[in-house]
Amino acid sequence: MTTHKHHMNIKHIFTVLSLLILFNCSPTQSTIDLYVSASGKSENSGEKNAPFSNISEALKKAKTLKARDQNAIININISSGDYVLSAPIIIDNYLNNINIIGSGSSEVTLKGSVPLSLNWEKLNDSIYVSAVSKTINFDQLVVNDSLQILARYPNYNENGKDWQGHAPDAISVERIASWENPIGGIVHAMHAGRWGGFHYTISGINEDGTAILEGGHQNNRPSEMHKKYRMVENIFEELDSPGEWFLDKQANKLYYYPTKDVNIKNSKFEGVQLKNLITIKGTKDVPVKNVSIKGIKFQYAKRTFMENYEPLLRSDWTIYRGGAIFYEYTENCKISDCELTNLGGNAIFVSAYNRDLEIASNHIHECGASGISFIGHPSAVRSPAFTYREFVDIEDMDTITGPKNDLYPKNCKANDNLIYRIGRIEKQTAGVQISMAMDITVDHNSIYDVPRAGINVSEGTWGGHIISNNDVFNTVLESGDHGSFNSWGRDRFWHPNRQIMDSLTLANPKMPYWDAIHTTVIKNNRFRCDHGWDIDLDDGSSNYEIYNNVCLNGGLKLREGFSRTVENNIIVNNSFHPHVWFANSGDIFRKNIMTTGYRNIRIDVWGEEVDYNLFPNKEALEKAQENGTDAHSAFGNPKFKNPKKGDYTVAADSPALKLGFKNFPMNLFGVQNPELKAIAKTPIIPKLKLESSMKSNTENWLGLEVKDVETLGEQSASGLDEISGVLVLRKSNIGTLVDSEIQIGDAIISLEGKKVKNTDDLIKIYEANKSKETLKINVFRYQKSTELLINIK
Predict the structure, then answer these.
(1) Band of residue 705 on the pLDDT scale cut at 50, 70, 90
(2) In whole angstroms, what is the distance from residue 223 CA to residue 225 CA?
(3) Interatomic CA distance for residues 471 and 454, integer angstroms
(4) β-bridge mates for residue 364, sequence order
(5) How far is the C-alpha of 75 from the C-alpha of 80, rounded, in Å?
(6) Who wins on pLDDT, 347 or 695?
(7) Integer angstrom CA distances of residue 550 from 151, 371, 431, 566, 644
């Protein structure tokens, strides 16, 4: 009997050990607490009654403890206070199972700034000057915990839109001539098409008085600087407004124009020196595992717009692979309940290999670049191309489906974060940015007051993302031709020449899914974009399911791509914008509610199914049915229950229900964390407008049916830099230009060397030159200008 019990005990022990191994646990896993206090000492033991003075000391102790027991769970508890970082905190793969726990983001602050010891003297009635240490080099000045303004022109104006103030003469010859030493000045300018921005430093002056500029590498769609939207800073002579400052690095002198509430003698001054605050980074073979960061405010990091940038494949983006919080080669890590603010570049950057990282309930605001970025490595992409017009020939292309290696984020989450006022310096930015990643969840975030997209997906590699329950609004505030949600899909199948792309996809029907291997889902979100589309699936975006979304203003756009199912959405004060679809797109648009008629551009074939939709009026429905779509669709008032309050649930007798539309929740958009929800803004709910009629505004010009470029959709579909020009809609049976080289879909931008803004310009220029046999005409085709010679006799 005793022997039998002994065997049972051994069997039980082996079972327990097997379970521990199965669940990757140590049978004797211990938990150790270390403590950090602003009043602690570096020579202390780290115990509760003898805390360290900073996190680096605690991590050093943790590494020693890990050498004895690598499976130990170590909690680093940080008490209230400000902690100045002399160097970034590095957490490597020797520090697995570490929890860094602050006593709350309102209590604990980690700073990338250092105190400045200053001795102020008056330079004049407004400006003070102080010597600074030769070893100090900062790019932002903090006074009494408030960022100040680097001397600039034009002066800072919170309501000044792009860069809070811009001026066409920011770097005019006359203004440059007024500066004693322009070298080191910084120029910010929008892209000519307002597709993001550029940044430069002034390295010299040409003989003609113009600036020699270095930089401009921050956008993947090169262009000239925008002639209007530009700003210059870091020029001493522009130090002329309260709150401005200038650091003369050669003379080691700091100049400051204090605001009325700053006592120059008693105020606290800090200089921002670090661009990275915490890096969690393992190696390809040994990733960092199980590191958690919670309850800390991360504040003050350097601006990074002049760092080395890399293109994100053929999207419009280049990006600096770095951030205030940086993850690379990690598994099962988490950052939660933190505040990230006053950061000069990206807030949280997730680079290359990362698995099961969670970014939850964080408050991200006042940052120079993007909020949260999930960015894989291009080595994981098969046959990558890196500029808009670059294409790998099909004969040379790797045609295997999916990623080439595992250097990309996968199964990561950005949940319940409050993100606003990011992109304060860089304009090709997003609240959440995804590129070369797989299965990323973006759920219950509130994102607003941003210069470009709230959520951006740069290409189709490799899909599987879940974009759900987000509240995204006040977007595209300082740019154009974009959406609250934006995506591109310039994957292996995509070519800038539409005819070549058509032939590729017809010959290789599965080609769009070589990269977009998993379906991306956009569901149960609320979007509002007053300067673009609420949902914008641009060039080539493929393999999407889009349902149960409320679009409050800009409508929903699908440009060339494959397998997009758009179902059960509500589009307020706008409609569906299909642009230049493929013959075999497989697109589906059904059971949606619209308040205006379709806004289609250059659509010859209408996908797999476009039907069972609710239109606002009979005319809009009949116009759609002329395309061979919407045989079972209907028109009428959708009977929203309370549209004034943003409740677009339809009543029981709504005609939408008869079409198969189903109500979905209207109260779950955005952050749900009680503390964040209490301070989060919500979008302005628009006054509902149901389109009562539709008007035609086309003209016939020499056998061509043409119209003005009037909308953002028409501008975008043509690839124009501005809403200007004349679109060619179709050709008649007779007319002088029916057999010309002008194609349907061309945008006429000039005639005989004169700009054509609209049909009035076109006809006036033609009338002035119609005695000639031939005319030179410029059309915009395949995103570039093409000159043609047309016979008009």
Answers:
(1) confident
(2) 6
(3) 9
(4) 340, 419
(5) 16
(6) 347
(7) 43, 23, 19, 12, 14
Whether the per-residue pLDDT at 23 is higher than 60: the answer is no
DSSP 685: P
Predicted confidence (pLDDT) at residue 8 exceeds the cutoff of 50: no
Q: Among the ranges 318-332, 731-745, 763-777, which has the highest mean pLDDT value?
A: 318-332
Q: Residue 402: which of 538, 493, 518 has the closest Cα? A: 518
pLDDT > 60? residue 389? yes
Ramachandran bin of 463, using left for φ above 0, alpha for ψ from -120 to 50, beta for the remaining angles: left
Q: pTM here?
A: 0.89
**What is the DSSP track for 119-141?**
--EESSSS-EEEE--TT---S-E
pLDDT at residue 476 in the model: 97
Position 693 scores a pLDDT of 58
Average pLDDT over residues 739-762: 91
The dihedrals phi and psi of 511, each to the nearest 5 degrees, come to -60, -40
Cα–Cα distance between 590 and 390 in angstroms, integer? 35
Beta bridge partners, 325, equal 278, 348
CB distance 174 to 211 below 8 Å = no
User: Is the pLDDT higher at 720 or at 324?
Assistant: 324
CB 664 within 8 A of CB 548: yes
Q: What is the mean pLDDT of the chain?
A: 94
How many C-beta neighbours within 10 Å does residue 28 have?
A: 9
- Would you call 436 exposed, middle or buried from its count of C-beta atoms within 10 A (0-12, 13-18, 19+)? buried
Q: Which two tokens stand for residue 473?
A: 């609004």
| Whole-angstrom distance, CA of residue 367 vs CA of residue 403 | 32
Could you tell me the sign of the dihedral formed by the alpha carbons of 247, 251, 257, 261, in that order?
positive
The helix or strand, by DSSP H or E, that contains position 32, with its residue range, turns out to be strand 31-36
Strands (E), 186-309: 186-191, 197-205, 211-215, 225-233, 244-248, 253-256, 269-272, 278-281, 288-289, 291-294, 297-301
How would DSSP label each residue in 512-564?
A: GGTT--B-EEEES-EE--SSSEEEEE-TT--SEEEES-EE-SS-EEE-S-S-E
Instruction: Say if residues 245 and 239 touch (Cβ distance below 8 Å).
Output: yes
Q: Quote the pLDDT of residue 27.
A: 54
Least Cα distance to 746 among 776, 726, 716, 768 occurs for: 726
| pLDDT, tens only, 425-463 | 999 999 999 999 999 999 999 999 999 999 999 999 999
Write down the pLDDT at residue 80: 98
CA-to-CA distance for 306 and 628, rounded, in angstroms? 52
CB-CB contact of 588 with 543 (8 Å) = no
Interatomic CA distance for residues 343 and 301, integer angstroms:
5
